[in-house]
Amino acid sequence: MTNLQIIPPGRGTGLVLKRGEQLRVVDPEGGQSGDVMAFSLDGRQRLSNGRTFDYGGKIYLSTGDVLWSDASEPLLTIVADDVGRHDFLYASCSREMFVKEYGLQDHANCTDNLRAGLRDVGVDAGPMQPAFNVFMNVDIDPTGRLILQTPRSRAGDGIVFRAEQDLAIALSACPAILCNGGSKGGPTTTRPLAFQRV
Amino acid sequence: MTNLQIIPPGRGTGLVLKRGEQLRVVDPEGGQSGDVMAFSLDGRQRLSNGRTFDYGGKIYLSTGDVLWSDASEPLLTIVADDVGRHDFLYASCSREMFVKEYGLQDHANCTDNLRAGLRDVGVDAGPMQPAFNVFMNVDIDPTGRLILQTPRSRAGDGIVFRAEQDLAIALSACPAILCNGGSKGGPTTTRPLAFQRV
Question: Do the Cβ atoms of B49 and A97 come within 8 Å?
Answer without folding.
Answer: no
